[in-house]
Batch of 3 targets.
Target 1
Amino acid sequence: MNKKRITGAALASALLFAPLAIQTSTAMADSFYTQQTNAERADITNWVANTTEDISNNISAQHIDTSNLHGNEYIIQWGDTLSGISDATGIPMAKLAYDNNIQNIDLIYAGDTLVLNRDGEVPSDWHYYGDGVYVAKTKVTINNFVDNSHNTVNINVSPVSHEEASSSSKSKDDGNEYASDLDPDGKKGEADSDKDASKSSSDADRDADTDSSSDSKSGSKNHHSDSSDSKSDSDSDSEMDESAFSDAVSDEVSSKLGLDDDKLTVDFTGKDDDDSDSDADSDDTSDDSDSDTEDVYDSDQDVSTGSDKLTDENAEKLADKIVAQLKADGKTKDIDDADDVELTIEANDDDFSFNVTLTTTDDDSDSDEDSNSDDSDADTDDEDTDSEDVDSSSDEGSDEDTDFDDESEDADTDTEDEDQNSSSDDEDSNNQVTTTDDENTDTEE
Amino acid sequence: MKKKWTVIGIIVAVIVIVCGGVYWNMGHSVAKKIPGNTYLYQSVSKDKTLYVTFAKSGDRAVVNSDKATALKAGKSQQDFDKEYKAQSKLTSWNYKAEGGTLTLAQETKDGKISQWQYNGILATSKKFTAHSFTYQIAKAGQGQVKSKTVFEKIN
């Protein structure tokens, strides 16, 4: 009898305290964030660039001697910028970027570890982009709400016009506007950020800013998008058929890019369709000799919305992601310039992949337009590979074009993507758009 | 005896009215007090500072962690314009003050807007104190913090 009671009590206690224990262990994961309160994390000072002097003090506070930097590890603080760190340490930005595998030097995260090393040189073929002037971002969502897509705080006295603010916040271009890029759902962000923070930043996971193509650095970003699959998607609407879904995406993309309705055609291939492959990489039709067709990307780009349901909401999400990526990659101008735009979307398991084919018709060729418009497979990727492949070293060349799209502010700074190499092994790691779901749980306190 | 209580009552009423008036004024005067001034803001954790210079007219603000820059911006309209322009290459800051509320909004080059709204402000000629702040930070989070924050006038 006694034994039973004890067992029962133990079981009850375990059930009662298990969540607490789990939370504690998660919370302890990343000391940088967990040592702070929401108030500290949300403080306005974190979003204003530190002076060089401030950064020097931060470095000194971590017992790093700036005159003797040989692989020291510095934990990036709020308000730090890479250019500021460069000034404070005397290490050129290129060297910092190279040592830490940072492609986009405007995208660094507070709490990440930065290797400071004066030794060694930067290979001439190492490329990075950005100015290094943006302050470190957060890897966790600072949030008091369980679901911050529907519970918004009230900023009732705002210098920003309502439209502007709402267009900014509703531009789910990058998913949830008020969630960290690396934190599609709060808990995951913490866990991952822990990994990142605890490891030397020369590791592959600094990929948040790195791209892509190059070898090993594809890490946590993709991670996040993958792991976000597990999130329950909140698509409550009913599913639609493929053509309706395709229309919905088309409408959204057209309106977001400001295209005429008849300029954009969407070719959607569902998961179950077999012809998807042939569609995606189909070869050119030679009959449109008077028009140039060009794929915007050499390889299909993966986009994750966290759900593969053919719902209105998912169509909107997908359109947002696609538009965000096109904007981030600086493709919108090409799209504007084209006469016809064909968006090919293919549903994978829980993701979608897309590519855009642009058709530019020559003045004298009237007939071609017709043939193109319905010819969804008329993409030739040959053209761009010929003409734009400048780099002979294919691996290195590819990095600069495949930036992470989640930070659209960087979009302007980079690069023409045209010279993307089509080395197929790289393509998947590029341009993964993380799914930012609406279920941002609040950060631990 | 009755007269005495009447006098006391009147005195109390006057005190209450005066204090209430002062308090009400402090709670509604931030918009009048800040234009053209530079304030030092200390972070919630007290380990970081920033400086905010509010435009004499309009809704612009220069927000910087460098004191010299902030003070320079407060010198003249021309200096303010210059500093604001320099700052705007990266981010532009605007503000709006109304009643007991001040909101600072940051817009980055790519159009991402973050806002910090300071609520329940009591303003004196030397400083103003907010009793809480509400934040909406792009790519970071949103919520409300019930911590006291102080902006101290430094010019």
Target 2
Amino acid sequence: MKNIFRFLYELIIGRPEPPMETPLYRSEIFPDVGGITLLLITALMVLIYYYVLNHLIQTARFSHWYHWLGVLLVNAAIAFGYAVYYCRLNEVTPDSYVYWFAFANAFYSAVFFLLFSLLFKWRSNNAARTPF
Amino acid sequence: MSKLFIFGIGGTGARVLRSFGMLMAAGVGIRADRVIPIIVDPDTQNADLNRTVEMLKSYKRLHAVAGEESGFFKTDISKLADMDSRGDGRVKDAFTFDFGGINQSFKEFIHFNEMDPDTQALVQLLYTQDNLNSPLTIGFKGSPNVGSVVLNKLINSPELRFFADNFRRGDRIFIISSIFGGTGAAGFPLLLKNLRNPNSGLQNAGDISTALIGAITVKPYFGLQTENESVIDSNAFITKTRDALAYYKNNLDGINALYYIADNPDTPYENRPGGASQRNDAHLVELLAALSIVDFMEYEEADLSGNTLYHEYGLRQDSPNITFEHLYEETTHRIGQQLVKFMLFAKYYKDFIKEDAGKNYYKALNLDSAFANDSFHKELRHFLENRQWGFFAWLDELSRNKRSFVPFNLSTSDLNLLVQGKPVSRSFFNKGITHDGFVVRLNKEEKQLSSEANPNRKFIKMFNHVTEDFYNNKMPTI
Amino acid sequence: MCLSACSNGDDTSSGSESTACGNQTPPPLAEQLDTVNIIIETSGSMKGFMPTQNRQTAFQQQVDDLLANAEGDKDNIRRLRLFTAQNNIRPIGYDHFQSMLRQGLAKAGNSTPIPDLLSQIASSYSGTGQVSVFISDFIYSPPNERDRDYISNDIRRALAPLQAKGLAVAVYGFTSEFQGTFYPAGSKSGDDAAPVTNCCETEVPYYVWIIGAEPSVRLASNILIPGNAPVAMQAGFDRSEPSYGVIPGSGRSGSWYLADAEGKTIFVDNTQELRQGEVSFTVGLNLEALPTQYATKEYLSEHLEVEGRNGRAQVQDVMSAQAFSEGERLNAKDRQLLECYTHLVKIQVTGMGDRNSPIALNMSLPAQNPDWTDAWTTDDDRDINETGARTFALNEILEGLRALYPNEREAVFTLDLSIRKAN
């Protein structure tokens, strides 16, 4: 799992900067932030979108693609914020890399959101065909 | 179960069949496998007849898609020609009788000029000059004496023979006619007499002569504006009715159930003797008359085998504007639920569904493309919205007629107020029947009906289930 | 959007690495000193340090300070004994010692060769619970001309008992004005020397030797010479490997990172950087417990060696912790860690062999005479005013002292680091 997240993040933002933080990023921040935002929170948001907003509360009002996109963007914002927050929590050396990382995380959160959507949407009552 | 042959005679027959078709579209149940309406009217230009025929054709196409399990359009209404499994085209593929080639005057029809003078004199005694000279193509214009002669020809028509070929023991016959008109008043006893004759020379004459036959005789329910030029005088309706009833009393044998219905004429109709201009607004009486067909089929064979059963219809409460509240429970029970459901469906289809692009069920059924390309939806829209013969036109006519039938609030866009006098109760937590609620339930149904492969049939089933849910759980009891 | 917010947070952070240097063992320090013997040489050559004239010399001042420090710390020093050393070591009363020091050395005794005095101290004034403080100018003129080549061995022999007893010696060098007759030792080439009267225009060195067990020597040095002496050297201290580790974030180049908090293994993702000499890093060393002569920037700069297996590296710079903190662009996270170290060594990797094998780096410091001795020693002290503040054959004397201890022939420390490709 660690290596998967490391691969994903470093694929688009390269090696951690400053290099001294490499172990911190690779063994703590990447897996923790990835696990929590990309897997946990994103899955939760997808579940909320498909099974709360579009299932439990009896309304079909939120089934449009732009609602889906809205939740995706909120999720991306959370992913961005959490990445920055977690870096600060771990007292990582301030560097623009933190923000690149946060951007990458937001980007992947969108990708994972889409993947989870494809996985979960079918059983949703009102959004089984959202976004498509 | 079995087949039901309905003979709709004259303009009234066509109009009753029109209402009957609407009830069937709404999914009102009838205990018959198949209904075969046969419209008997020599006036093929009659606008009422044409509207009914168009409606029935459309119904037939929609039923072909909906099948028998979809709630709406579930009853099989066929043309006589559909019985023709051999397809040799012995009868015209239509709901109507082919009176082919009677574009002549009554005088010519009976070969008046070739009669000897004595006979001519007798004929002139029985028929006015108008009777003799008027063309038959526009019917008998309230002249049963003409009709009875012409219609006697019916017995030799290929249609009737074809009907007889396909008649099976257990099938029933129902005859709709008006007592005060021309075609109907003349045709009904004539038809009955021929059907009951075991020696008529028709195939299965024995079975036919013992078949269960019901009939409704529509007594006057509208008046006509008095026009000096017109051949029809509504002032004579009552007189004619009285005479006819007297005749029926003594000569009408072999009917198992006979229904009577009448109303006090209020606003007279425009006086149109026939042809394309005979186009009268639908009337409550026709709707109730159509109910007699359903009622007739409810009876078991044993119940009908004794003496003739006579039925009349009464309102629970007199009112110039009839709603569900003014009807007895038996009626509302029979048609209320299905009419409300169909109305919800029709209303939603007309006013709301276009806004659902992007909703789950809409995408699942690919409705954008279906609306544009699928003939089912074109047909359905036609059936509901055609200005001449569509469902909404029918409701509209019913509501503006005197007496008016206004079960629905036709102008509202609030589904909760759709049923006149029975608003859906609402609260902060319960918004009643909303567009959104509709979508939610449609989405759900769409998923639950995943086994239904035909998207159009699924579409109808979805709406049937959803409207039924609303009817049972949201609507106040009608 | 919160770029500044992020960097603000880190400055105030109290590091989670407060335990980073927790495993370092502090230098051994005695709890108490049983007996302190202060032995001051009072031969004629010492008279110039304690002139009878009015002017006080630095010697008088400094030795009085030393005495006062000894007297003042009754908690740590239970017994203080005073001695003079002429041809013999004799106890002397406090008042007498005091007046001798302050009023001047009225009556100087005969000169006794330094090895004899050292020998007496080593055998009689050292032992359990004792610390001897020997104050002398350490001008040793072997009676025999030929013996001048054997100074170092003379000293070693004299001190031999110390090695048996496991005792250590700390040497502190001072200089002082000298007023009187200077008795030079002569020259290595054997020329005799005549006393120089009315000396001297230059200051003259003298030395305080503290002899005892290592913990006692450390404590005595702390008490008696709290301000640092100009020069110092210890011999006979136990060798313990100094704590060390690579500083992760400062004084570095290249994209390497540490394998763990220990800081002994460096990971690189890209070995190309190693080949191209783009990798440099800084190792922190805590040399607190080391003999002071080895823990100077100068000594380290000159003698510290780095050897690599499967790679080459060189020492780029040696800095004190303070200089490093002030000079380098520090990563805030390193600040805490830097407090664990007294010195920083910057090392550059200049080459690599097999890219799939680790580079093993070995950093070692050879033990040699302190580098200040060259400035304090001379082969010919006959013209002291010209030579300056130097002591005849000090090099040999100190070499003799160091030769006493076998571990002085070994490297002061040998530290291992490894650089490997991250998997």
Target 3
Amino acid sequence: MRFGVVQFPGTCDDRDALLACRQAGEAELLWHGDADLRGVDAVVIPGGFSYGDYLRVGAIARFSPVMEAVTAFARAGGPVLGICNGFQVLCEAGLLPGALLPNLERRFICRQLAIEVVDAGTPWTCALAEGQVLSIPAKHTTGRWYAPPELLGDVRVVFRYARDANPNGSTDAVAGVASAAGNVVGLMPHPEHAIDALRGSVDGLGVFASAAAVPAGA
Amino acid sequence: MAEPDGRACVRARVLIRPKAGILDPQGVAVEQALPALGFTGVSDVRIGRLIELELDDPAQLEAMCERLLANPLIEDYEIVGR
């Protein structure tokens, strides 16, 4: 299993994402200026501030050369995971439903959160159980997931903030969603920061282990 | 207006607003700050963006707004002063 971790100017969680992927397989960086995924089996778009978050979060990154390749890969069924800024980029690219808005309470959120797995039918959650609650940190200012009411019924929710803790005002306490086919998943909390007991939780490992458990080409 | 090389050049402004019904925390913060300065009777403060640009072909502006300058899911845009 070979993961590719996308690096934009302003990405800051690429190293942690590489470390997390390497718990489940091999991993390498993919540069934003190359429309080439180097034959990887899965793509992770990590957190940070791609292109300075100018204009809107993710708005400029979505038009980078690597995103052309990621879009083709996703449309062909390849597993793609967007974490935090990566989630924002995938929403802007139209690969995931909705958009991310500034947190309702106007504060930067940086804390450990309880996240419930709602859909274990995606390549990023298939090693987890529905109803399982993960302890994963979140750190964001623009994490309020929003979809207009007329779209909401069709959205495939994958993660929800558990225990009535909706830290940012997301619609229906949604923490992560998938594409209709399930192969593209995005979430605001950071599973790649929860892979070592030294940092308080290893609950993020299951996300990367899930992708590794999917047979290549499946 | 013309560039030194003779090309026509148009100045345009695009106003971008949060869509109606979407809560705007920046607007709320400003609305709550104004009474502290003695400005009362202010409501429904909404904060958006102003984009000013010069361009050769104003016919492209609509497409620019749809594809990049605004996210139609959460924002409305208005082209003014071109």
